[in-house]
Amino acid sequence: MRALDAAMDDIERATRDLPAPLAVLHLPSLRANLEYTVRRAGRTRVRIASKSVRVRKVLEQALGADLSGGDDIRGIMAYSLREALWLVECGCRDVLIGYPTTDRQALARLGADAEAKAAITLMVDDVAHAEIAEAAGAHGVRMCIDVDSSLRLGPVHLGTRRSPLHTVDEVEALARTLDARGHEVVGAMFYEAQVAGVQDNVFGIGPVKALSMRRLVPLRQEVAQALERVTGRKPEILNSGGTGSVEASASAPAVTEVTVGSGLFVPGTFDHFKSFTPRPALFFGLDAVRSPAPGMSTLLYGGYIASGAPGADRLPVPVRPRFAFTSREGAGEVQTPIDAPLPIGGRAWLRHGKAGELAERFAEIVVVDSVDGTPAVVDTWATYRGEGKCFG
């Protein structure tokens, strides 16, 4: 990967005097990923998934300094109502929450804030979500219905366990109930995780992805028609896709927008996709502090494990030098032995397995860009944590 090597050359040159551990964003790669994402989406607008970013300045790179979005990038998909309320305070006027909420205090704030009610769309898949919102004082709010997009073949379930809504009739029934209770049903979401988030080197995944996308085409169209029957207007939001399925989702009938988050940073879990060319943009550096045995080094810190089912694919991905973790210790909380002979004080560079989770480990990320043709540190950007925000 020539782009990866070039990014690492820039980062090593620009940050050699900075102490580790440090997280570094290669700004030229981020810009390239944003441009590439828009090209992949074609004429369909893109929504940025904040859970895979968690750095406000990066959101501003995508949507503009006022988080207002534009012709190509529509708004933000947040992962928390409290986060969404904060983003509205920061200027964002279009926040779709990707998951249902039962946060009664945040719902009370939403119900009392006309500006937030106009900007924020709640995700629901059960009337209980509406009942909890109403009990907290959030009446007449914007709602989007989460529709199950997994592939189910008899007893086999392929995909994430999200919505209990599998059929058009179930979606339409909930939409009618929400509409009768005075809420504004603005659309539906379809997240095909078994397509967007599974690497193409998994045995047998190709047919699973192809079949999943074929089955979703009529479902999305029929749901759009059902919502129009209920509300009397075409859905404002028909959200689909993720980083690994942008082209297929964006070109599908009825889809109005696709969601992308990991595609901005391109973490390790996206190294083996055929649907797009990864260009990693976010890295972290750790220093060697021990030489415990010939041919080995011990890095200080490094236990930045990705969420999900435990396994080797949850470990950080070594970048420079290439190395393996020990089988007994893996990536450790305060020390990480590796099978590479770094000198004490030498630095290893890695990438997180997933995108936004690295931001939970660092208060800031160092930004490297080219200045008059020379790589340099041009800024440091606070993560959500660095801004004193922790949304779960």
Automatic annotation (TrEMBL):
InterPro entries: D-amino_acid_metab_enzyme, PLP-binding_barrel
Signal peptide: none
SUPFAM superfamilies: PLP-binding barrel
Molecular functions per Gene Ontology: D-serine ammonia-lyase activity
Gene3D superfamilies cross-referenced by the UniProt entry: Alanine racemase
BP terms from Gene Ontology: D-serine catabolic process
Superkingdom assignment: Bacteria
Protein name: Amino acid deaminase/aldolase
Source organism of the structure: Dietzia timorensis
